[in-house]
Design a protein that fits this description.
The chain is of the alpha+beta class and about 425 residues long. The chain has a domain of about 190 residues: 2-Layer Sandwich (Alpha-Beta Plaits), CATH 3.30.70.330. It is built from twelve helices and six strands. The strands form two sheets. Strands 4-5-3-6 form a four-stranded antiparallel β-sheet, with helices on one face. A two-stranded antiparallel sheet has the order 1-2. One of its GO terms (biological process) is mRNA processing. One of its GO terms (molecular function) is pre-mRNA binding. It comes from Ophiostoma piceae (strain UAMH 11346).
């Protein structure tokens, strides 16, 4: 077999051959080549089809809370005897306000791992649910069937000040050893931690272990004594951390002594706490007051939200003089006047709404609009004070203001009589 017979025939090409274009006068060969190239490259783009891109959104489902211990091996034990009489209502020994020395030296049986143990439970579908105390201690055997929350407290979790985040009742005073639930008379966000193993990196160790339970506002460590004070931003996180770190150990084999911290005697700390309470009170008041009133107090224009120099004080100087030159009403009179104006505006709004309802219903049986409530003449100022102010206005402006005559009420028609002879 010859070489020409052994080689297969080439496949026919689907590309149509183009006839050479005639060369125009004055046209170069390079221009002709460029034109052919442009036509060759743009031809496939017309036949290409656009591919539809579909994006699939994958939503992760919340995982259920896992049991921290085996339910078959979990046993509830009565609290150790620290008193003389056992109170079955509070499930504690009465008369003993201090933890026994043996119990304080015993390590915890479990520890909560928030990253692995947290999840949804039956309490997530119920508003106002409390947190699981056994979950904080790492000993909850119920998992997703638990009627309490298995997660960390957040700033949105608000509870009654008489109970803690676990639903336990607080008392009027702390225990002698600053343990227990705590007091409802003083909100406490600082936890005392003792018996810490002293090392060079003690501050880093304390911050790393206690940051698991919430946002920390301030940490103070006494390196030589092995003592630390941790202040959380939220009180519920401090309550959770106290139970979660009780009798635990850090990076060494120590057994921590976790209690509530007493009042800080440092004047700077007391001033800082008082400032924080004032800021919270101001934020609560700001949420209740209308925006226009807040803008006026802050000296801002409510429409443009720009700073106005002397806005509230200027308005008070103008309107607080009650038309008397050089007179400025005291705070009591000014705020009473503002309150009266607010009440009058509310009454006018109610009257306008009643008129609109009467117009909408119309016909017989339509609700009658209440009569306009006249402004009471008896205000905050006495009649003698008003008369003195009127005389002062007459001297300053030269205008004589006459008081309106009081109209006597009309008696009953039975006693009606007239002295005129024309009747």
């Amino acid at each position: 077999m010859s070489d020409s017979e052994s080689m297969p025939a080439p496949a026919p090409s689907r590309v149509r051959s183009r006839s050479p274009e005639p060369m125009l006068p004055g046209m170069d060969l390079s221009e002709l080549a460029t034109t052919d190239t442009a036509l060759t490259t743009t031809a496939p783009s017309t036949t290409a089809t656009a591919k539809k891109v579909v994006r699939k959104i994958i939503r992760k489902k919340r995982r259920p809370a896992r049991p921290q211990v085996d339910p078959a091996t979990f046993k509830t034990e009565p609290p150790p005897q620290t008193g003389v009489t056992f109170n079955i209502w509070y499930n504690k020994w009465s008369g003993g306000d201090r933890e026994s020395s043996a119990a304080s030296q015993t390590g915890a049986k479990g520890r909560c791992n928030v990253a692995k143990d947290s999840g949804y439970t039956q309490a997530d579908s119920i508003n106002g649910s409390y947190f699981c105390l056994f979950f904080a201690r790492g000993l909850c055997p119920k998992g997703s069937d638990c009627p309490y929350l298995h997660r960390l407290p957040m700033i949105t979790d608000i509870f009654n000040p008489n109970v803690d985040c676990f639903g336990r009742d607080k008392f009027s005073d702390y225990r002698d050893d600053m343990g227990g639930v705590g007091s409802f008379l003083r909100p406490n966000r600082t936890v005392y931690v003792g018996r810490i193993h002293v090392s060079d990196d003690i501050e880093e160790i304390v911050a790393r272990h206690f940051a698991e339970w919430g946002q920390i506002e301030r940490t103070r460590v006494l390196n030589t004594k092995g003592v630390a004070f941790i202040t959380y931003s939220n009180e519920a996180n401090a309550q959770f951390a106290k139970e979660a770190m009780a009798h635990q150990s850090l990076d060494h084999e120590e057994v921590l002594n976790v209690r509530w911290a007493t009042v800080d005697p440092n004047p700077m700390a007391q001033a800082r706490e008082a400032r924080r309470v004032e800021e919270q009170a101001a934020a609560a008041i700001r949420a209740v007051l209308p925006a226009d009133y807040i803008a006026e107090l802050e000296g801002r224009d409510p429409d443009t939200n720009t700073k106005v120099v002397g806005g509230a004080s200027k308005r008070r100087r103008i309107e607080g003089g009650f038309g008397l030159q050089g007179y400025e009403a005291p705070d009591k009179v000014w705020y009473a006047r503002e309150q009266q104006l607010g009440e009058q505006m509310e009454e006018q709004d109610e009257h306008a709404q009643a008129q609109e309802l009467s117009q909408l219903h119309g016909g017989e049986g339509a609700p009658q609009a209440p009569d306009a409530v006249e402004a009471s003449s008896a205000g905050v100022l006495s009649s003698a004070t008003l008369a003195a102010l009127a005389r002062q206005r007459e001297r300053s402006t030269g205008l004589v203001i006459k008081a309106a005559k009081e109209t006597k009420p009309i008696g009953a028609l039975v006693s009606y009589d007239s002295d005129s002879d024309e009747e």
